[in-house]
Structure formats: structure tokens, C-alpha cells
Amino acid sequence: MAIPVRHKVLNGLLATTLCVMAACVVQQAGVLMAADWSSSVARHNLSRWAAGKEDFDDTRWQQAHDELIEAIALTPKDATLQDAMAQLYSLQGQAVWTTGAEGSPEIEAYRNAMKYQQASIELRPTHAMAWANLALMHFAVNDTPEALFKAWREAARLGPREEDVENTLVMLAGETWSIAPEDVRAWVEARRPGFSERMQDTAAR
């Protein structure tokens, strides 16, 4: 996997829509309100950074990090907060990208993102976009094809009719086409007829 291409593809993470915290039972309302308050500015900044409406800022990144840590401490079983923290570290990885080599600051950031994405999946294992994001993170850290495509297949299984999931998986498959297993290629070809031929033409140039 070529490093410049890997950096370009990771822009897909920036476009991931962040979920808002859901309401809970009445007896937990106070805790939820406190967690929502703690994370509200962080989530606002995340959405603007992800949409490209504001430049990434280290100081506000740290503030968002601290706010999300506080919110997670209040409601540790809220998967959307774990997703938000994964997104925050992904944004950091994108912002500090250098070579993509092991030990670089971006790889450390994406490995931290993976920890929170996996925590989100443990809380909400049927969320297809979370699995698609995990596949992207495996790609970001240049992980093994086995790990990458395991997450890829789970996202495909859980979100066969989710447009954002499908687009993410097609993009990722295209960037890893030379190592993509046959079932992955067949899945993409079924949804994007002629995709295999276009990839072959690209490789021949």
C-alpha cells in the first residue's frame, strides 16, 4: 500500500458523520445531561473539522479530548462518545501526517483511534459504519490484510443497504485492490459493475 495513497484515502474518515448522544432512562437523566454538556463543544468542533469548515487546531484538539474524556467517565457505555474520540484521534493523525511509517506520530494517533473504535464496537457490535471506520484505521496503520478485511467484511455484512458504508467500502477496496480477496472484489463488482475492469486498466498504465 503506497503511503501517499493511504494518506489520501484517510480523508474518508474526516467525512464520517458523528452521532449525537441518545436520550436514556429518567433516573440517568442528570448524568446524561452532564456528559452531554461536557462533550457538546468537543462534538461541535469535531463536526466542523470533519466538514472542513475550520482548520485543525492543537489547543482546541486538547480541549475536545479533555471534554470527551470527562464525558466518557460519566457515561462509559455510550458508544457515540467512543466514536467521537476515535474520530478525534483520526483527525489528529490526518493533521500530523508525515511518512506513515511505524513509530510516526500519525500512526500513534490512529492506533489510539482504533482503541476507541473497538470500544465502540464492543458496546454496539452491529453498527456497520463503526466497522467500516475500523477497516479504514487498519489501513491507516498499514495493518495486515487479514485484520483489514475482517473488519471490511463485517461492515459489508451489517450495512448492505447503507450508502455511506457502501461508499467507504468501495473506496477502501479500490485502494487495496492488488491484495483484495476474491469475495471482496465480487462484492464491489456487484455494486459497481465494470469496477474490476477499470482497476485493471489503471494498473496497466
Automatic annotation (TrEMBL):
Residues 1-22 form the signal peptide. Keywords: Signal. It comes from the Bacteria. The keyword Signal applies. The keyword Metal-binding does not apply. Gene3D superfamilies: Tetratricopeptide repeat domain. InterPro entries: TPR-like_helical_dom_sf. This is Tetratricopeptide (TPR) repeat protein. It comes from Sphaerotilus uruguayifluvii.
